[in-house]
Amino acid sequence: MEEFKFKSVNKLFEKSFKENWDRPALSNYQGVTLNYNDVARRIAKLQIAFEQCGLVKGDKVALCGRNQANWGVSFLAALTYGAVPVPILHEFKPGNIHYLVNHSEAKVLFVDDYIWEQLNIEEMPGIYVVVQINTFKFLYAKNEQLADVRAHLNESFGKKYPDNFEPKDVNYYEDSADELALINYTSGSSGFSKGVMIPYRALYSNMNFACYYADLPLSNKSQVVSMLPMAHMYGMMFEFLYEMVLGCHVHFLTRVPSPKIIMQAFAEIHPDVIIAVPLVIEKIYKSKLKPIIDRNRLFFNMPILDKILLGKVRNELVNTFGGKFDEVILGGAAFNPEVESFFKKIQFPYTVGYGMTEAAPILGYAHWDKTKLYSCGQCAPYMQMRIDSEDPQTISGEVQVKGPNVMLGYYKNEKATAESFTEDGWFRTGDMGIIDSDGFLFLRGRSKCMILGPSGQNIYPEELEGVVNNVTYVVDSLVIDDHGTITSLIYPDYHTAEADGLSREQLEKRLIDSLPEINKELPKYAQIKKMEFLPEDFERTPKKSIKRYLYQRN
Fold first, then answer.
1. Axis-axis angle for helices 144-151, 36-52 (nearest 10)
2. Dist. CA 537–CA 357, nearest whole Å
C-alpha cells in the first residue's frame, strides 16, 4: 500500500486563495457571488474579531444556519485560524442546539437570525459572542468590551492592512496530521449525540482521494452545485472543502433542495460533477422516467427499438442534470435496486460510494465506468478494509476499517470511543457486507439502522422512538423507513386500555390522533407519517433488544 504523506490543509486553502484571487468562489443561488479575494477579506476580518475576543487555537466555534456563502466564510475563518469549527444542523430543535453548543464548549456561535429567535442565551453560558451569519453583526456579546470589537472592526482591519488587502497578506495557521480539525455531531439529541473528532489527516486524505483517485475532472474553472447539508461531512467535504482547495465555483442552493429547484439549478449552472443522495435520483426516476417506461413497456422489449429508446432516455436524463457533468456520485444510503439496475442498463454515469462521518467521510468508491452493479466501490486509498466473517467473500460480517480517514474518537465520550474500535485497533462501522475477489464492497445491511432524510439529514430511529414511547398506552415502538415513508411500528398496551374502557379500535384511533403532538417534538425532516400496530410484542434478543433487522422494509 502506498505510504500516506500529509500536507497542511490550511496551507492548501492559502495557496488556492492566492492563485484564484479574482475568480468566483461562493455564490448563493440566484443571489450574491463572492470571489476568492472577497472570501479572503471576510476571513481576515473575522480572524481579527476572533483574536480581539480572546479566542485561542483549539477553541470551538459553532455554526448553525442554512447553506450559504457566509456559512462557508465562517467555517473557513475558524478552521484557518486554528480554531475548531462545530457545524450544527439548522433543523435541530432549540433544546438540541443548546445542548450541542454546551457539550462542544463553543465560545462563538454563528447563527441564522430566525434560529436565534428561538434560542435562549442563558442556556449557553459559555458563549462569548453570537454572530448573525448573513451580516456578521453581533447578536449578543458577553460584555461591552466584546461588543466594541464589532463596532470597531473596519477600523481594526484598516490598521492591520493599511495598503489594501492583497494575496501576500493571506497567511493561515499551519496544521498537523493528528490535530483536531473539527467536531461533527452525528445527531441532535443529547441522549444519542456523538461528537466525531475529525483530524486534519482525515480532511487531507479525503481531498487527496478526490484529486488523484476519484478521477474527477475538476479545476479552477469548474462549477459545483451544493445541495447537501453543510453540517454533514459528505456535503461539506465534496461540495465545499475540496472545491475550495481547487479554486472551483460553488453555488449554494440556500433553500430546501426540492427536485424542481435542483433541476432548475442544474439547467442554469451546468455542474461538472454532481454529489447527491439516492433519494434525489429516485424521485427524478419516478417522476420523469417511470411514466415513459410504463407507457412504452412493449417497445422496450423489442431489441432495436429498445436500444433507441434507452438512448433517448439516457440523453434526456443527462440533459436534466445539466449535460456537462462527468458523473453523479451517490452516497449516504442504499440505492433502490430497481432504479440502480435501470441506470446501469442505460449506461448513465452514476456511482455509489460508501462513507460515514467517522471517516470524513470516504471509505469506498469506484468511478462509474469501473464499478459493479449494487456495489459501493473499492476501499479508499491509504485505507484498509476487512470483513469480520469466516468467509468475507460469501458470508456477511461487520465492515471494519483502518487508516488516515478514521476519526480520533468521540468528543468527551471515552466509552463510545472504546466500543467503536476492535482490540487490534480497527474501526467498527456497524455495517454488514462482503468483499468480492476484485475488492468490491457489497453492503448487506446497516446494523446501525440510520435513516437518510430527504435532503441528506441523518435520522436516528432511537430518537423518534424515545418520543413515541412516551405516549400513554405505548409499550414499545420501532421506527423504520418504509420505502421512503417514516413509519412507527407500535406494540400498544391493549390490556390496560381495555381495563380503562377503550376498545382496540378506540385505542388505535387515539394513538393515531397523537401523531401531530409527537411530530411537534421532531424536526420537519424526521416527521412520522404513519403508524402500524402489532398484536403482540416485537421479537427480541436475549438482552431484550428488538431484533430490528426483522422489521426493515427497504
1. 150
2. 34
Do residues 41 and 165 lie in contact, with contact meaning Cβ atoms separated by under 8 Å? yes
- At residue 344, what are phi and psi to the nearest 5 degrees? -70, -40
Q: pLDDT (tens digit, 9 = 90+) per residue, 66-98?
A: 999 999 999 999 999 999 999 999 988 899 999
- Phi, psi torsion values for 458, nearest 5 degrees: -85, 125
> How crowded is the C-beta side of 256, counted as CA atoms within 13 Å?
6
Q: Give the 3-state secondary structure of residue 263.
A: helix
- Name the residue ranges covered by the structural domains of the chain: 460-551
**For the chain, which ranges sit under pLDDT 50?**
none
DSSP code at position 390: S
User: Considering Cα of 163, then 164, then 166, then 172, what sign does the dihedral take?
Assistant: positive
Give the angle 553-192-119 at the CA atoms, nearest 5°: 115
The SS3 of residue 373 is coil
3-class DSSP assignment, residue 382: coil
What DSSP letter does each residue of 264-320 carry, written as one string?
Answer: HHHHHH--SSEEE-HHHHHHHIIIIIHHHHHHTHHHHTSHHHHHHHHHHHHHHHHHH
User: Identity (one letter) of the amino acid at 145?
Assistant: Q
Q: Which residue in the block uniquely carries the three cell numbers 497567511?
A: 171
What does the H/E/C string look like for 445-492? EECCCCEECCCCCEECHHHHHHHHCCCCCEEEEEEEEECCEEEEEEEE
For residue 366, the model assigns a pLDDT of: 96
What does the buried/exposed string (b/e) look like for 142-177 if buried means 16 or more CB atoms within 10 Å of the residue's CB? beeebeebbeebeebbeeeeeeebeeeebebbebeb
Q: Looking at residue 147, what is its pLDDT?
A: 96
Task: Supply φ then ψ for residue 5, to 5 degrees.
Answer: -120, 120
Mapping DSSP to helix (H, G, I), strand (E, B) and coil, where does residue 180 land?
strand
Cα–Cα dist 3/440, whole Å: 22
Residue whose entry in the numeric block shows the C-alpha cell 436534466: 320
Residues 6+ apart with CB under 8 A from 367: 214, 215, 327, 351
Predicted confidence at residue 453, as pLDDT, reads 82
> How many whole angstroms separate alpha carbon 31 and alpha carbon 68?
10
What are the grid coordinates assigned to 517, written together?
403532538
**Whole-angstrom distance between the N-terminal and C-terminal Cα of the chain?**
36
Predicted local distance difference test score (pLDDT) of residue 553: 80
Which residue spans within 112-240 are E strands per DSSP? Answer: 129-132, 138-141, 180-185, 195-199, 223-226
- Cell (9 digits) for 385: 478494509
Centroid of chain to Cα 65: 14
Close Cβ partners of 211 (under 8 Å, ≥ 6 residues apart): 242, 245, 246
pLDDT value of position 445 = 65
CATH code of 460-551, in short, is 3.30.300.30
pLDDT of the residue at 179:
98
How confident is the model at residue 217, as a pLDDT?
84
The C-alpha atoms of residue 353 and residue 29 are separated, in whole angstroms, by: 27
What pLDDT does 305 receive?
Answer: 66
Residue 6 · residue 177 · CB < 8 Å: yes
Beta strands in 142-273 (DSSP E): 180-185, 195-199, 223-226, 249-252
